[in-house]
Design goal:
By secondary structure, the protein is α+β, with helices and mostly antiparallel strands. It is built from one helix and seven strands, in the order βββββββα. The protein has a four-stranded antiparallel β-sheet, with no helix packed on it. A three-stranded antiparallel β-sheet has the order 5-6-7. A hairpin with a 5-residue loop joins β5 and β6. The model has no long low-confidence stretch (mean pLDDT 79).
């Protein structure tokens, strides 16, 4: 079990963010279920411990700082992430499948 150094509620009080010695920022529901874990340093076995976490006022982003004074920011805006992902998916499908892919209900893509 890793020590936790930072805990913060979202502005709507429905989500809790934590950060600590394991170097991850974790989002929790009020019933204790971990919703997501962000790893600030991809591809490394261990990140620096997280010293602070904070939500943006409308819960669209979360920021974290480590003890080396690095700041990381993640976009939590699902609408924006879905739009960006769908645009990438559309471009990928057009390149890889000559525009003949069959079903993409999530993005409502027409190929």
């Amino acid at each position: 079990m890793h020590p936790v150094y930072a805990v913060r509620f979202s502005s709507d009080g429905k989500t809790l963010a934590s950060g600590g010695d394991d170097g991850q920022v974790k989002l929790w529901s009020l019933n204790g279920e971990m919703l997501h874990a962000f790893n600030p340093v991809q591809g490394k076995s261990r990140s620096r411990p997280i010293s602070d976490v904070s939500f943006s006022p409308k819960k669209q982003m979360i920021a974290a700082a480590d003890f080396d004074n690095n700041v990381m920011v993640w976009n939590l805006d699902l609408e924006h992430l879905l739009k960006v992902s769908c645009n990438w998916l559309k471009d990928y499908l057009e390149l890889e499948n000559d525009g003949k892919a069959k079903s993409h209900k999530l993005c409502k893509l027409k190929t």
